[in-house]
Amino acid sequence: MAKYFDVHPDNPQPRNIGQIADAVRSGALIAYPTDSCYALGCRLGSRDGMDRIRSIRRLDDRHHFTLMCRDFAQLGQFVRVDNDVFRAVKASTPGSYTFILPATREVPRMLQHPKKKTVGVRIPDHVVTQALLAELGEPLVSSTLLLPDEEEPMTQGWEIKDRLDHVVDAVVDSGDCGTEPTTVVDFSGGEAEIVRRGAGDTSRFE
User: Fold this and answer.
1) C-beta pairs of 58-65 under 8 Å, 24+ apart in sequence
2) Could you tell me which residue ranges the YrdC-like domain spans (predicted)?
3) What is the arithmetic mean of pLDDT over 9-27?
4) What does pTM read for this prediction?
5) How high is the pLDDT of residue 61?
């Protein structure tokens, strides 16, 4: 059964955040809220966690996982960002955007797109997620919690606990966080290519 953490949306309890971070470090797969919708997350380098996310969502090995980063400095450790892209990404973070960029050596090969050697990165504008990332000290490997054959992600922590009780290790509930996933922008070719239109305004990339 998954552990259930009821976390205050504006003032996350440090004890809860510490316990969630410890669980992630120990290999737990968590369901947690973001500024766009709920996500599944595991520790960087956890092949088991990634395999479990793929199994839950029925994804193939071409799926772009996202590194949920605390800030721009951390993001810069894991992707290569030239000056033009730097300005565009910096102006859009934190926020509901995922950027696909060339991966650095810090990114485990199993996380990179098998052909393009890219990875998705984002900086969330969400108090609870930021508190967790600060406590972890490293990115969370993440994917939108969208179940197969369903058009919208689940929005309620109790519902996720009920549905995924035996396939995730912890559920973090800090209230409803919406159903619209991030806007995905691919900068790996140098120019902005909008891969998915979502919660983030796309006009600055068009």
Assistant:
1) 58/148, 59/143, 61/114, 62/113, 62/114, 63/143, 64/100, 64/113, 64/118, 64/119, 64/120, 65/111, 65/119, 65/120, 65/141, 65/142, 65/143
2) 14-200
3) 98
4) 0.94
5) 77
